[in-house]
Target: ADP-ribosylglycohydrolase
Amino acid sequence: MCGGGGWEPGEATDDTQMAVHVAESLLQRSGLDLQDVFRRFQRWAAAEPKDIGLQTEDVLANGLPWDQAADAHFRTNRRAAGTVR
Model:
């Protein structure tokens, strides 16, 4: 990765960083464990990554369990990824 657009050479985007967490969870848990993926995402978000979407940050930081976090966001905020629902 050559860098550019605010990114240093070798620096991964937030999407890539999250994909790595999914892959690591799949390997370590021998399959999809949504609670584990969510915990990994929460730790990543708490480390203040260089770039994180507002919706993603809200869902990961609202303190709710994985199966309630997005629902709570959409009940109070009708925006998603820059669009209005």
